[in-house]
Amino acid sequence: MPLGHIMRLDLERIALEYVVPCLHDIGFCYLDNFLGEVVGDCVLERVKRMHRDGELADGQLAGPSRGVAKRHLRGDQIKWIGGTEEGCEAINFLLTLIDRLVMYCGSRLGKYYVKERSKAMIACYPGNGTGYVRHVDNPNGDGRCITCIYYLNKNWDSKLHGGILRIFPEGKSYVADVEPIFDRLLFFWSDRRNPHEVQPSYATRYAMTVWYFDAEERAEAKKKFRNLT
């Protein structure tokens, strides 16, 4: 049986039997050992090279402070990429797999109809104790419905290095702590159901995030933006 066929069956099974039920039941889920060591290493090396070459810029705040960098609120350095850039073949492969996973979730995502996503945001917390204060990715209906984060941190020890992503599920009495360990892929709803924070990081912390858009909400958000401008 061709490898591509096996991968398709596996991704479809994971989407339908794990990702969809978890999103509906608790609002988030993660998959470990998603790419495997070899391909994961290729993604990590490309991200490290971007960091070394000075390609990352300070993350900006959205909302009322849009376009402003405030290190005490958000301490990451970022770069947006499409995945088709030179040397980004492993990143493009990763994005293709995530796209397929979300595609297989299909109509089972409730009211959402996903047909596009953002570029990938490469993010680095440089290990100087910065994090990202509690926030919601999409508090005002900009179209983002699913946040997907791929982590790239080998030998990460949260007791020493911090950097946990803490989710505060709406209406629940518990929090969910997600360690940013190598080759872990996290999904969660992007709206007010999942306020979250990145706790201060004391070692260099790498991640890559993409956001999937609900077609109707995205079109409405673009229409509002055009009317404003």
UniProtKB/TrEMBL annotation:
Its EC number is 1.14.11.29. GO terms for biological process: cellular response to hypoxia. One of its GO terms (cellular component) is cytoplasm. Residues 116-214 form the Fe2OG dioxygenase domain. InterPro entries: HIF_prolyl_hydroxylases (IPR051559), Oxoglu/Fe-dep_dioxygenase_dom (IPR005123), Pro_4_hyd_alph (IPR006620), Pro_4_hyd_alph_FE2OG_OXY (IPR044862). It is an enzyme of class 1 (oxidoreductase). It is found in: Nucleus. GO terms for molecular function: ferrous iron binding; hypoxia-inducible factor-proline dioxygenase activity; L-ascorbic acid binding. Pfam families: 2OG-FeII_Oxy_3 (PF13640). Its cofactor is L-ascorbate. This is hypoxia-inducible factor-proline dioxygenase. It catalyses: L-prolyl-[hypoxia-inducible factor alpha subunit] + 2-oxoglutarate + O2 = trans-4-hydroxy-L-prolyl-[hypoxia-inducible factor alpha subunit] + succinate + CO2. Keywords: Dioxygenase, Iron, Metal-binding, Nucleus, Oxidoreductase, Vitamin C. It comes from Crotophaga sulcirostris (Groove-billed ani).
